[in-house]
Amino acid sequence: MKPNQDWQPAGWRNHTALQQPVYPDAAALAAVQGELARLPPLVTSAEILALKQHIARAQEGRSFLLQGGDCAESFSDCESGLISNRLKILLQMSLVLVHGLRKPVVRVGRFAGQYAKPRSADLETKDGTTLPSYRGDFINAPEFTEAARVPDPRRMVKGHARSAMTMNFVRALIDGGFADLHHPEYWDLGWVSQSPQSAQYRKLVQSVSDAIRFMETISGEPAHNVNRTEFYTSHEALLLPYEEALTRRVPRQDGWFNLSTHYPWIGMRTAQLDGAHVEYFRGIANPVGIKISASVTDNQIKRLCETLNPDNEPGRLTLIHRLGADKVGAELPRLVRAVRSIGARVLWVCDPMHGNTESTSNGFKTRRFDNIKAELETSFDVHAAEGSHLGGVHLELTGENVTECLGGARDLSEADLERAYRSTVDPRLNYEQSLEIAMSIVHKHQSLG
Description:
- It is a single chain.
- The chain is α/β, with parallel strands linked by helices.
- It has 13 helices and 14 strands.
């Protein structure tokens, strides 16, 4: 990526910035930004550039991107059990995909920085009291009190520390052999034996283990690169003062890098062409994503491609379509054709979660597994029909035994939601639903030949 000579990390301030909190003390905010700018980065430029190469291969159909994690992290979730379970489900899903797709999988966790969330309204009213909306732990607290809802810039420092601890633990697990394909049975969660998918998964694990032992027996050498795996992080780069403070130049590299994460993305609510987020993203050297909804016009998607990747660099730009099961068949073909018409290199990724959100009769925000699966399968069909290919999936999921999405192998009902609904923002796939999605991706891919 050629450096933008006219670009600076703070240049977004000259544009309209949506979904940003109003901090009551500007001097305190500036002091926190200065402190963040002096703290060590969370990722390195070498890791970022390596991921960009992996994404370039996924654009060509030579690998598949698996991106998943919590809808919004909370500071209280920074604990070893939750982190390791989150990593386990992504590793197990990737094992299913590697085995079934017969290609490498790029593993990206939606964590270690997913502490800010866009909201549909700035204010929230309960029992006649109106307060600022909860915007994620980076910004304020979920308790419905005046003190908790005041935006506090010091929360960014706390979020940086939680992100660093999360990433340090993930790296330690992987370097210590947690992801060793010789022993995928180590990834089992405590309740996997109860899952309807258990027998199929264990059969797959045995098949992978047998294949590795066979290769090593024939070659007389250890199988290459099966004792550890590369793992990357991502988050929606929503809170621009935080992202600006972690954006730096690095020795022996051109341009500016966002060192808060490997793979930031722009959400649908902040994807305006003349907005602050697009202005910020156009100048960083990271691979970047942008969420695409049915409201995006052909001209808008073309201009976004040209703005965010003017040099048409491989691995630079990911388009994450989130259209809904009822719209994907009608809307996705035109979007694919619009991008093809300008020859833009992009990685197409399906987010089958956000377009399928609904509220139940008992007041829970949920998603139906059948709709999630249907949007994903239709996306594969559309890309195949258009001469394109779907190169990845973007999911909100957890390694915990939650009941937040309806359906799946256990056919969770509305009554089940009350049993283990723990998300503070959006509903997530639980462990077995996530594994079932991975298996459905394999089945769909194999049916397309």
